[in-house]
């Protein structure tokens, strides 16, 4: 049986109360010999039902159409936000951050208008949203400060203003995650999201390669920059991490949901993004990309629930054939474009590893300094966003005084949020992979493919975060959380399907995501 489609969020219209029968009069009460006397309220209802039934129905239908239009507009708006943050150099500058926040505010306002028209507000909160909310509350607590009579400020954060700015950005990224979890809930919407990510990723990869071959020190051939950029990103590692999240999307759909000639287009997009990620020269990006592809191959060994395999050979061929072709295409493309710079960078890492015991000496020094910071702020950390402010106190060389990030997202969250932040990180990882384990077993090939793609993309970023700062970039963090929302939705839909079909396999482990419904807030 096919997985039932989930109704779009917020498209539920309250049932109109039935009017009394005006011709026959109101119904008599049970056991009463006399008919019930019509009240003034009944007369008004009869008048509405008779004289104004058509206008009322027309108004309800019009309201429903507007609500559906707003629903589609919010989903399209979130796609526009993802595209904008990527093209705006990852949204790392004040102007791009401000525009990103304004766009999200606009989407929230549209959601409020839609809830007003519907007469109720329905919000889906995935389990993965709970640790994000807890981290946001921790940051808000850190940003509280008190000023004494001497004008000295005291608080949990070592830099209250930096913490407040970081909490603000985290709030809007979290709001985008909630929007994705509520407006990308049908098979059509999820498939649209996947296709947009695939097409946009291929376009960005093509642009990045062209810009790299014609590089003249200017972003988009217009804006001068001293940085060694790649594509729309200031740092080549951020570009490689972005591609590592998107490559699993077409690859997983090829294995699970896409058949026929469409596989060629999906495979071409995956190969193009993989080539661009490797040509960027980011060693952490190359490793994370390889980790994502390997995880897809490993998870795809598990058969889909209820699938019947006639011949083992054909199963293995359908499983490894697309992955093998895409991998070989990536390697061939890198060799054709020019593999010498990539091999040289990898050789430098191996040489440093042999000489000093670390593939990157500067990163090893940063990590040692960050560990000292963690020891000084073990419980609640120094405050979200304060790494740039307090790191000079721990730096051993002047060259590292202006360091923005720890080049290890796990160490940085421990330094800024302490052991509490570390526990929240573990909570998020467990919640994501718990939903992924359910989604990959889905009977619906699309949900299984999306769960596999999201899991591989998230895993790739987690690997890169061991030595880089991918999740510190708003655009990459946004795509990361959208993938988490997709995985959560796929896992929740699988649970609903299993219960509806009467399959009671592992009921204790399959916990559907929490749904919060707030009704009547906009009724007079």
Descriptive report:
- With 524 residues, this protein is mainly α.
- The chain has helices spanning 40-51, 53-87, 94-118, 129-142, 160-183, 187-213, 236-246, 248-256, 262-279, 283-299, 312-337, 340-356, 361-376, 387-394, 409-440, 445-464, 474-500; strands at residues 120-125, 145-147, 153-155, 218-219, 223-224, 514-519.
- It has a two-stranded antiparallel ribbon with strand order 1-6.
- A hairpin with a 5-residue loop joins strand 2 and strand 3.
- Helix 6 (187-213) crosses helix 9 (262-279).
- The longest helix has 35 residues, at 53-87.
- It starts with 39 loop residues before the first helix and ends in a 5-residue tail after the last strand.
- Residues 1-21, 23-33, 303-317 and 498-524 have low confidence and may be disordered.
Radius of gyration: 27 Å
Total count of strands: 6
H-E order: HHHEHEEHHEEHHHHHHHHHHHE
Summing up helix and strand content along with how strands pair, one would put the structural category as mainly alpha
Major sheet characteristics: 2 strands, antiparallel
User: What is the rounded distance between the termini?
Assistant: 43 Å
**What percent strand?**
under 5%
Strand order of the largest sheet: 1-6
Query: Percent of residues in helical segments?
Result: 55-70%
Give the gist of this structure.
This protein is mostly helical and 524 residues long. It is 65% helix and 4% strand.
């Amino acid at each position: 049986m096919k997985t039932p489609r989930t109704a779009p969020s917020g498209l539920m219209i309250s049932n109109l109360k039935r009017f009394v029968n005006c011709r026959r009069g109101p119904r008599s009460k049970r056991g009463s010999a006399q008919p019930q006397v019509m009240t003034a309220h009944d007369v008004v209802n009869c008048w509405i039902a008779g004289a104004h039934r058509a206008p009322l129905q027309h108004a309800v239908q019009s309201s429903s159409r507007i609500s559906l239009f707003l629903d589609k507009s919010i989903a399209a708006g979130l796609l526009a936000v993802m595209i904008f943050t990527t093209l705006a150099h990852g949204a790392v500058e004040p102007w791009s951050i401000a525009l990103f926040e304004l766009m999200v505010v606009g989407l929230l306002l549209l959601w409020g208008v839609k809830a007003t028209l519907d007469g109720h507000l329905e919000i889906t909160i995935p389990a993965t949203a709970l640790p994000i909310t807890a981290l946001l509350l921790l940051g808000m607590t850190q940003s509280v400060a008190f000023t004494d009579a001497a004008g000295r400020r005291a608080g949990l954060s070592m830099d209250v203003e930096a913490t407040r700015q970081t909490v603000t950005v985290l709030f809007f990224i979290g709001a985008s995650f909630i929007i994705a979890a509520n407006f990308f809930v049908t098979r059509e919407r999820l498939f649209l999201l996947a296709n947009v990510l695939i097409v946009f990723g291929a376009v960005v990869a093509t642009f990045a390669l062209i810009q790299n071959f014609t590089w003249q020190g200017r972003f988009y051939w217009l804006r001068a920059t001293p940085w060694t950029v790649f594509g729309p990103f200031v740092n080549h590692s951020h570009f490689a991490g972005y591609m590592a999240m998107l490559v699993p999307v077409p690859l997983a759909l090829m294995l699970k949901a896409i058949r026929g000639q469409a596989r060629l287009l999906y495979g071409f997009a995956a190969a193009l993004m993989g080539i661009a990620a490797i040509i960027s020269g980011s060693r952490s990006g190359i490793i994370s990309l390889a980790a994502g592809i390997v995880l897809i191959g490993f998870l795809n060994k598990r058969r889909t629930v209820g699938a019947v395999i006639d011949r083992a050979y054909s199963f293995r061929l359908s499983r490894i054939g697309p992955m093998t072709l895409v991998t070989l295409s990536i390697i061939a493309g890198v060799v054709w474009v020019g593999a010498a710079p990539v091999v040289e960078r990898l050789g430098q890492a191996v040489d440093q590893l042999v000489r000093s015991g670390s593939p990157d000496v500067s990163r090893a020094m940063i990590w040692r300094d960050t560990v000292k910071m963690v020891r000084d702020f073990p419980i609640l950390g120094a405050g979200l966003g304060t790494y740039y402010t307090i790191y000079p106190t721990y730096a051993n060389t002047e060259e590292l005084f202006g360091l923005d990030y720890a080049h290890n997202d796990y160490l940085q969250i421990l330094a800024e949020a302490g052991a509490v932040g570390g526990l929240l990180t573990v909570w998020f990882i467990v919640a994501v992979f718990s939903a992924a384990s359910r989604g990959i077993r889905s009977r619906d090939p699309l949900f299984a493919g999306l769960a596999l793609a999201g899991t591989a993309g998230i895993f790739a970023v987690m690997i890169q975060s061991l030595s880089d700062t991918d999740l510190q970039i708003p655009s990459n963090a946004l795509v990361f959380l959208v993938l988490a929302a997709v995985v959560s939705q796929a896992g929740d839909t699988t649970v609903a399907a299993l219960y509806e079909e009467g399959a009671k396999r592992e009921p204790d482990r399959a916990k559907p995501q929490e749904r919060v419904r707030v009704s009547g807030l906009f009724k007079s």
